[in-house]
Known about the structure:
Elements: H1 13-16, H2 19-37, H3 44-47, E1 75-77, H4 92-96, E2 102-108, E3 120-128, H5 137-141, E4 147-149, E5 164-165, H6 167-174
Antiparallel strand pairs: 1-4, 2-3, 3-5
Keywords: 4Fe-4S, Cell membrane, Iron, Iron-sulfur, Membrane, Metal-binding, NAD, Quinone, Repeat, Translocase, Ubiquinone
Catalytic activity: a quinone + NADH + 5 H(+)(in) = a quinol + NAD(+) + 4 H(+)(out)
GO molecular function, one term: NADH dehydrogenase (quinone) (non-electrogenic) activity
Amino acid sequence: MAIIKVTRPKLTLLEKLYFPSIVKGMFVTFKHAIRSLRGKSLGADSLNSSGLGVTMQYPEQKWDDHLPEHYRGVPALVTDEQDRERCVSCQLCEFICPPKAITIIPGEIESDDPWAKVEKRPKEFDIDMTRCIYCGMCEEVCPEQAIFLRKDYAMTGLSRADMVNDKERLYEIGGVRTGLVNKWNEIK
Length: 188
């Protein structure tokens, strides 16, 4: 095998000194500062709440209007129009989840229930938001369209326990989703 010796290019005197690069960087920063003070910055019209620059005032202003259509946020469980659980505890979302953030414990449906033909529903359904990577694989694999990624990006908590969404919390943030649900289909 041949060895190729690579020589470094020789630096000029200006390239050896750091001062010209520092001045050039300060010039770019100063130019952007002047443009923002004059209100000519990129996005200054839509985010200009303080009168200067393009700083978003977060609690009052949010990115909700600027989010793209394909944005993936916090996962949530949804119910149908008659407030019935869509989830059948197939556990596909739990198996496909790369960081293993989803935990499902299936439960039986009582035999006196009018929808006893459905095999099971989740007894417990937890999503650990400290592990979730918002990949959307749980939404794609769900056969009953029971789990959706909302356009909510502000998921906070004061402790790790606050960041684990249980079944009740997931249904609370998920709401109602309309459309055909295979679980409640009479023909199935």
